[in-house]
Design a protein that fits this description.
27% of the residues lie in helices and 27% in strands. It contains four helices and eight strands, in the order βαβαββαβββαβ. The protein has helices at residues 11-29, 43-59, 112-121, 168-171, and strands spanning 6-9, 35-40, 66-69, 100-108, 129-138, 150-155, 162-166, 175-179. A five-stranded parallel sheet has the order 3-2-4-5-6, with helices on both faces. A three-stranded antiparallel sheet has the order 1-8-7. Helix 1 (11-29) crosses helix 2. The longest helix has 19 residues, at 11-29.
């Protein structure tokens, strides 16, 4: 049974974290020419949209190329799921051929979601480079050799714990919670 979650990042620090991630991306990608943001459905899309919005403000650029990538049918557990999986729309009206791709997810846990996203991304061309941005990196739970290039918050949580990133647009307030499953 899950008990009430504990807030580990408040709305004030949440915005500072978004700004820090944006500044790190600007240092690496400058004017974002030949660079795109790709949010992994569903959690990564919220972070990707927030990064795109803030980067556009910081760089005074009206448009930064971005898309939404569904990985449902690329997951290695797709056929073993106990219930039918629901797919989300992939919205990418561009190819990633020879582009810098900033792959975005809310929580990096085992690495399997990112592995599936890398496979799905291949259907849109061969990127020049792929970097991973994660709002939360659960460092001690990796099952695959995948790591984030840009991390909002590193969390050391036991396997049974659950980390949730909540967004003002969806849940009413920006915050990150941890739930200890007992």
């Amino acid at each position: 049974m899950m008990k009430k979650g504990r807030v580990i990042l408040t709305k004030e620090r949440f915005q500072l974290t978004i700004d820090r991630l944006c500044r790190q991306l600007i240092e690496q990608y400058d004017d974002f020419s030949d660079t795109c943001l790709v949010g992994i459905q569903t959690g990564g899309v919220s972070l990707s949209e927030r990064l795109q919005q803030r980067l556009s403000q910081m760089l005074d650029m009206p448009h930064i190329t971005s898309g939404k990538l569904d990985i449902t049918f690329y997951r290695d557990d797709f056929r073993t799921a106990s219930k039918p999986l629901s797919a989300y729309p992939t919205e990418m009206d561009f190819l990633v051929e020879d582009k810098n791709v900033i792959l975005v997810d809310d929580v990096l846990y085992t690495g399997r979601t990112v592995q599936a996203a890398l496979t799905a991304l291949n259907h849109y061309g061969r990127p020049r480079r792929v970097d991973l941005v994660s709002m939360v990196d659960r460092r001690f739970n990796r099952e695959l050799p995948i790591q984030s290039n840009y991390i909002g918050l590193a969390v050391d949580a036991l396997d049974k714990a659950y980390v949730s990133v909540e967004w003002k647009e969806k849940q009413g307030e920006d915050k990150i919670l941890i739930f200890e499953n007992k």
